[in-house]
């Protein structure tokens, strides 16, 4: 249960937490031996330890995904509706699962030490490990190239990819005259996220989520973090920690039509 408790702490803190703070919180659990703490978080199936300028941070990981098939046998993933996971499923005839505690889902969660997580904590964990993109829209790289409001994106307002500045996500865009959006609340990004079922209350934490995805993939170009500023059209984004991994404020206590966030796409 030790690793399961550590996972719960991290997911309850937005999916990423400072090492020292995690150690402090973990010391309150009788089944977590602080002398063995480092060996526990070295489990790279569950945790990713990053360090920048001497500051260490721990991110939660998982191999669990949402199954894209309604009925399958021998499946290792959750049989769960993504809109239900977001708390937004309104389809009375939805054929996907709406029960985290079903026999199948309970078994999957237990096998991956996720059985103590709430639905909100599981959502946070799956968002940060969203590869390939099933819960969140990928960045539109056509939008990020070219001139004008839509760059080279031919789909323009009908595009289902995210029209957000890639440099802003990467923490490398500090140009005051950037013509790309730095604001997830603008109409196009907001509509795209809501179309994937992301609740409006979570939109403010999307910068942290997308950056943590890059951290877990090892493709974040800058650990310095982007400043919270307004671009030409943007309002700025979520807060970032000093280590550059964005903090989820909602938690309690690549050219062409690229479908990935990796810079070499």
Query: Structural class, from helix and strand content?
Result: mainly alpha
Principal-axis shape equals flat
Number of helices: 9
Radius of gyration: 19 Å
Report helical residue fraction.
25-40%
Please provide a written account of the structure.
The chain is mainly alpha-helical and 265 residues long. It folds into three domains: 59 residues, Arc Repressor Mutant, subunit A (Orthogonal Bundle), CATH 1.10.10.10; 47 residues, no CATH class; 134 residues, no CATH class. Helix content is 27%, strand content 6%. The protein is built from nine helices and three strands; from the N terminus they run αβααββαααααα. A three-stranded antiparallel sheet has the order 1-3-2. A hairpin with a 2-residue loop joins β2 and β3. The longest helix has 12 residues. It is flat and about 55 Å long. The protein starts with a helix and ends in a 48-residue tail after the last helix. The C terminus is likely disordered.
Which terms would index this structure?
single chain; flat; Arc Repressor Mutant, subunit A; disordered C terminus; phosphoprotein; zinc; 265 residues; mainly alpha; NAD+ poly-ADP-ribosyltransferase activity
Furnish the topology, listing elements before pairings:
Blueprint: H1 2-11, E1 16-18, H2 19-26, H3 37-41, E2 47-52, E3 55-60, H4 82-85, H5 103-111, H6 119-128, H7 166-170, H8 187-195, H9 206-217
Antiparallel strand pairs: 1-3, 2-3
